[in-house]
Design a protein that fits this description.
heterodimer; A: alpha/beta; UDP-N-acetylmuramoyl-L-alanine:D-glutamate ligase; Protein-Tyrosine Phosphatase, Chain A; 2 domains; 9-stranded mixed beta sheet; 6-stranded mixed beta sheet; B: alpha/beta; 5 helices; 30% strand
Chain lengths: 462, 245
């Protein structure tokens, strides 16, 4: 066991020295030598681990929870680089373990890829599992979303008996897990109708169907995607009443969000420095977990107020005097629509750079580009000065924009991704905002260019 | 001004990544030519007057929605749709929609879900999902014409009577109908079935225009279409052929 730990630590050290942020190799080597390494290390944490999974918002929710835990004065193990497969998580534990294999931390906060949940649950035996949402995402990775949900459902039955499930009441695909869950369930959701619509024209692949009987769900309110207030008139399945709920929201543009949360431990006015309504759900998941962990209200308030966006999630960058940029990962229509919505609400002149790759980590199928509401960009065409597309599927993106009603003359395709980023940065004028929208592997490439030009830190140091 | 009417069947049940791209493409390509394309939808329990329709679109889905749709199609829309196909109504059916228009879906226990029988074809589930990029030759669109797309399906579809239902295309890259015989999709009169899911028409403008021309010919006896620049369409199509073909 110690040999495995030391081998892993050595690889981490070598990687750092060579300037790689490599996050899976040390864990892979450690596990090769001692397959039970992760179970051994994770088993030492006195307050146990919380697993955070779902298609969108894992990274942000985990970071918000980590900020709250830190504000409460507790120590933690957190896979903050976003390496969310079993090797990467093992690497995280190897990194924090002492030379004799002791893990001297209070709590574990683990963001976990959906497909990795079953294995991780058996090895780590988490005390809490948080499920954020199931948006159609990179369908070709798992075949179908339904299989992913079934995978999580099965994993729930392998949890220790005292484990608690923290579920998004507003996503029928997630809330469906509640009634079958063997242990205690805590739901969170949004009650206020200060945001959202009574109807929606965005369609999602079968996510508005009852998972129990297959009939269409009846909605009285939509927030976004399939999130909202719903019932199934056919079998009676309905949105559970959330124990932790948002009762008021105020969107403050670039400045972020203010909102009120009612919890069994009290009602708290809170604020976030990050824009995007979807961050309300991320915060709610983190707050609900904090309540379950009995962390004080002060820690929740300070943790969230001090929270800064995760790596590439509507991350704000300053490129020079009066030159701003936002870096926002896009990977599925629901998330992308929220990014577009935030972009459209931003007043003033802006430029747009969209980077679409179809590597394995992005999802090979880029069909979802046609489900995202790029038509909304046509409404703000004048303050949108230029649109550049790039990446392996940059031409598909240009085509999508042309069919989205944007003036064809305003669209440019640059085949060289690095050049596209460099040119976009050089082009921006004082008073303008550059929005950079990459898929996952394109985000890594953007980050590399930015780092080279001295704009942000290497991501594993954040 | 010429007007066409498109009926989108089961948009709430049969909808998979990017299907919407096909509707957007037909709308824009009509608008750019001064043709008005109206779109209405019809789902469970709703009847459709197919004599008023010029185009029909049926999308793909995950497996669980299908029994509901099979039952509804049989009850409320099927016979009228089949009759309209005989009258050369252009139809684009993708994935589950394609299977639905075949003769039947055969389960491993030999139970059968009867389809509409527009295509002389049957479907059975396969072991592995067939996914990935597809490049195929499509002589029906002209010499050296190709179709590009992305497939992701468990079902294996077999064409039963080549004299009645021809394949839409022959795969160069990808699996196509069943991963065995090299065929992709089906065509009967003006009805097209395909496993090229999601946004098929944006990158295959020739196929979009094939459908529109037939719809116009049927309604106005004149299927002529003003040519479009198709700059991004051609570049995006060619990039897929170059990368995967």
């Amino acid at each position: 066991m110690l040999l495995a730990l030391w081998a892993g630590k050595t690889v981490i050290g070598v990687n750092r020295r060579l300037g790689y942020g490599g996050t899976s190799l040390p864990g892979a080597i450690g596990r090769r030598i001692a397959p039970k390494l992760l179970a051994h290390l994770a088993g030492q944490i006195p307050q146990g681990s919380t697993v955070i999974t779902g298609t969108n918002g894992k990274t942000t929710t985990a970071k918000m929870l980590a900020a709250i835990i830190a504000a409460a004065g507790l120590t933690q193990v957190h896979n903050h680089t976003g390496a969310n497969l079993v090797q990467g998580i093992t690497t995280t534990f190897i990194g924090v373990a002492g030379p004799l294999g002791k893990v001297d931390r209070d709590i574990g906060v683990l963001e976990v890829d959906e497909a990795t949940v079953p294995q991780l649950v058996s090895e780590v035996g988490p005390r809490n599992i948080v499920v954020t949402n199931f948006f159609p995402d990179q369908l070709d990775r798992f075949g179908e979303l339904g299989k992913t949900i079934a995978l999580i459902e099965k994993a729930c039955h392998r949890l220790p008996p005292q484990a608690v499930a923290i579920l998004n009441a507003d996503d029928p695909q997630v809330a469906f897990l509640g009634p079958q869950f063997p242990g205690r369930v805590v739901y969170y959701g949004v009650e206020t109708k200060a945001y959202g619509t009574p109807d929606t024209r965005q369609t999602a692949a079968g996510t508005r169907l009852c998972r129990i009987c297959g009939h269409p769900l009846n909605y009285t309110w939509f927030y976004y995607g399939q999130l909202g207030h719903y019932t199934c008139k056919h079998c009676g399945f309905h949105r559970p009443t959330p124990q932790v709920q948002v009762t008021a929201v105020e969107m403050k543009g670039d400045a972020g969000l203010a909102f009120t949360v009612a919890t069994p431990a009290g009602t708290w006015p809170l604020s976030l420095a990050t824009p995007g309504f979807y961050n309300i759900y991320n915060a709610l998941a983190a707050i609900t977990t904090a309540v379950r962990l009995q962390l004080p209200a002060r820690a929740v308030r300070e943790g969230l107020a001090g929270y800064r966006t995760s790596f590439g999630r509507m991350e704000r960058l300053t490129l020079g005097p009066d030159k701003k940029a936002f870096l926002a990962l896009i990977k599925n229509p629901t998330g992308c629509n929220e990014v577009i919505r935030t972009l459209v609400q931003n007043p003033g002149p802006k430029r747009l750079l969209i980077l679409i790759n179809d590597n394995a980590a992005d999802g090979r199928d880029i069909s979802w580009l046609w489900d995202a509401d790029f038509e909304a960009l046509a409404l703000i065409a004048p303050p949108l000065k230029t649109i550049v597309t790039t990446g392996l599927r940059g031409l598909d993106m240009a085509l999508r924009l042309a069919y989205g009603g944007l003036p064809p003359a305003g669209i440019t395709y640059q085949p060289d991704l690095t050049r596209a980023v460099t040119e976009a940065i050089n082009q921006i004028q004082p008073g303008e905002t550059l929005f950079i929208l990459p898929t996952y592997t394109a985000l890594l490439a953007v980050k590399a260019v930015l780092t080279k030009q001295g704009y942000s830190a290497n991501y594993w140091e954040e | 001004m010429r007007t066409l009417h498109l009926v989108h069947l089961y948009p709430d049940l049969l909808t998979l990544d990017g299907d919407r791209g096909n509707i957007i493409t037909l709308c824009r390509r009509c608008a750019w030519r001064g043709i008005t394309l109206t779109v209405t939808t019809a789902s469970l329990g709703e009847t459709v007057d197919f004599t008023a329709a010029d185009l029909v679109f049926i999308g793909g889905s995950a497996d669980r929605e299908q029994p509901l749709v099979y039952a509804d199609l049989e009850k409320t829309k099927g016979p009228a749709l089949a009759a309209a196909v005989e009258e050369r109504l252009p139809v684009l059916a993708v994935g589950a929609g394609y299977q639905l228009l075949g003769r039947c879906y055969r389960f491993p226990d030999r139970k059968e879900l009867p389809g509409l029988g527009v295509f002389a074809a049957w479907t059975e589930p396969g072991e592995k999902r067939l996914t990935g990029n597809v490049v195929a030759t499509a002589p029906m669109l002209g010499e050296k014409s190709s179709l590009v797309g992305f497939e992701n399906h468990q079902g294996r579809t077999f064409l039963a009577e080549p004299s009645k239902t021809r394949p839409l295309a022959q795969v160069i890259t990808g699996h196509g109908n069943n991963g065995r015989d090299g065929t992709e999709g089906a065509i009967y009169r003006n009805a097209i079935g395909t496993y090229l899911q999601g946004p098929l028409l944006p990158k295959n403008p020739a196929l979009a225009d094939w459908l529109l021309a037939r719809a116009l010919k049927r309604r106005y006896q004149d299927g002529s279409l003003a040519p479009l620049p198709d700059k991004w369409e051609t570049l995006a199509h060619q990039s897929v052929v170059k990368r995967f073909g």
